[in-house]
Amino acid sequence: MSAFTDALIAVARGTAGMTTGEPREPVRTSFADLHARARVGAGALRDRGLRPGDAVAVMAGAPVQVAPAAQAAWLAGASVTMLHQPTARTDLSRFAVETASVLRVVRARVVLLGAPFTHLLPMLLEAGIDAVTVDDLLSGPAPEEPLPADRPGGIGEELPALLQLTSGSTATPKAVRITHRNVWANIDAMCESAAIVPGQVMVSWLPLFHDMGMIGFLTLPQCRGIEVVLVTPQDFLSSPLLWLELIDRYRGTLTAAPNFAYALAARVLARAEGLDLSSLRFALNGAEPIDATAVRAFLAAGERFGLPSTAVVCAYGMAEATLGVSFHPWGTPLAVDTVLAADLEERRVAVPVEAGDRSEDAATRAFPLLGPPLRGIEVAVLGEGGRVLGDREVGTLHLRGESVTEEYLTVDGPVATRDARGWLDTGDLGYLVDGRVVVCGRVKDVIIMGGRNIHPTDIERVAGQVDGVRAGNAVAVRWTASGGRESFAVAVESRAAGDPAEVERISAGIRSAVTTAIGARPATVTVLPVGSLPKTPSGKLRRAAARELITPA
S-S: 42 plus which of 76, 160, 316, 330, CB 3.0-4.6 Å? Predict the structure, then answer.
């Protein structure tokens, strides 16, 4: 029997719930009410012929609709796939083709549509895809017969609970198969590490089609009885201060966001007045990469509002591990490992910089320590030939444990994720320090110049600090320079992209800053208008696609 669905049913007997509709029309809905609606939906799904092990896809923006729709699928024994959502710029004809490809990969039996996407219903039906609105699904009578989740052994631990789409191109979709066992193991471990118990209050604007939003702030509260306040990414982007105002208003204790949001929050806090952020004890930053400068700026800006200096928790996670892999111990200060750049790039060893241990002009790199692995997860660093590396030796991070997936679903069918010893290759470069995880970057993105392994994130961080560059919108990619020499190129977004004089100033500033900080000169720099750089649905910059936008020198 699934411990996960047992927990959903148990929480429905309590008083916790979710608040949605801020800032215009806040409404609190208890998990008991959501569960009652979900039971209606589960019965309707069963009546449509769904059986345990089948797949349901969901596209909805409102958390108050996503929550009962997802729980309805789980109570019926089905898995949930949160579909990526179209934007105002989306080509709907291409979107329809890509969505159909995703539905084939996960073998979805039905698509559940909620606001603001119900207008897509005729398009899906015309394409031969079974679809229904969330409101229609939840509007019928309560089921008379027991649901699969009500029967002992009705939902097995190895049945899929989530088929989580990865952050790659939607044209070649890939989904991570997350079982009931995986979900419960990861949620249980995260709650233990972060001391998440009833009485805490979670606040989030994260998209629910991304694993951090869907699992961390929609699924976890429903199965652990944690009060949660949810708004949409659009709400946050239209008014970034809203995030912090909600933490104040609801005495939020836990939140999470990618790195750019903390940098943005630091700026808006500089103009804010009258906030009280003293309740916030756990603000997870799990972005790629985590910029310690942005974290420090957020903590400094929040100090006058009572924000604890230990509030930000740097973490490592990925969909293949359900969500969390390691958390920096909460309630302790930010820890940064500063290492000598030359040893990192040339010998793949993270040599720590101690006070007085280097000359003034020696280049360094700084990486946040991401804490020890969560309970039940092992992390190993492997080098060439699968050799297990020791502390501070840089290699590829590998994971294994009860919350780590066993397979991907792809256009070519299921693909195993683990090797013969149970290890999953994350594709991330990193190292361990006394059992704590450090991530340096992605293996596929490393730029090799003159025997040096240069991480694009280092270049991007420097370029992003040049005046006129839009925060969080700088990309460095491998580039073949004249004569076939391996080099790199930089692309940035700027609101001044239409001004030739400003473009030249920004380009020169990037070339100078990067050459000084990194010790290597970009082969070319391209300044693009705002909104040009391609991103994944979860907001990560797509380096390979960005390369196509770069203008040769």
Answer: 76
